[in-house]
Amino acid sequence: MSDGPGPEHGAHGRPLTRSQKWEGFKESPYFPAIVLLFILAAAAGLFAGSYTYAMANPTPHRIPTAVVSEPDTARGREFVAGMDKALDASLVIHVFPTAAAAREALEEQEVFAIVRSDDRGVSLDVAAASGAAVAQLLAESAVKVGDTLGIPVAVQDVKPLQKGDPRGLALFYISLAAVIVGFVGSIQLSVHARALIPLERIGFTVAYSLLGAFAIAAVVDWLLGAVDLPFVESWLILAFTMFTSGMVFTMFNTLIGRWAMLPTWGVMVLLGNPSSGGAVSWPLLPSLLGHIGRWLPPGASVNAQHTAVYYQGHQRVFPYLVLAVWALVSGTVFWVWRHRHPGGREHMPQHAATLT
Length: 356
Description:
The protein is α/β, with parallel strands linked by helices. Helices cover 58% and strands 8% of the residues. Strands 2-1-3-4-5 form a five-stranded mixed β-sheet, sandwiched between helices.
């Protein structure tokens, strides 16, 4: 009789090869957990870096400014040249024949300031609603340049911010809330309502977008009184933003499955929010971000809200087209490749599918 178990034989007795160990590790729960450790660390650094790069030290890059040509005085030309020098040659001068034409350009958000001159001195009209930091920078620079040149300067804010939002950040925050809740809602549908078929998933995305946007607008306007919103228009802009953000995640979830959060976070948060012009107006952003931001959903949402609140009657179609294109492309990708989406009835366990 043997004193112990005999030697192991066959495949079960052989030590695992490196390839087999690696395959086993990839199938274990430890592999995605370790990958997530590095992804989260990188995301934290990128998140801090993107916001710091865009917002920590805003400097003027390109500030469209209207100059009224009549009457055109030597003092006015000297003042404009001094301003441009003080702002590191960042002024982009647009000459208008009359003050009315210049004011219309400001209402259309084509310029950020208006310079008028006469024999008594120079008048500078700024618009805090287009960017509080830009208006402050222009006003402070104008006073300094006027003192240096001995030219009287009168500064007037012709588009002041509302009293409940003196820094102009409320519209950025409500747009940020719509963006984040939009894709978080889509994530939650994928986790807790996995069995929704594509049309139902789109329908519930519309539903939580409308309800969530209503809640955001109601709290900020009715409950806190921070900003007097044109309620229906602002509500629908927020709902459109939330729906677009939700569909962007749904698209990436269809294309790459469980890692869909990575490109969604990258496009909507790391790149989209710092470049939106909400916290720092685009003339003070790094030039590349200032251009990219207008083509992303967060920037489109902020632009639409600013115009709705402060430039009523001058709403532009561009931000709505940006949101519509992102929503349409995302929805089309999801619909065409809906069989790849991890949700749906066909993915239900067999015993659950047979229950009546």
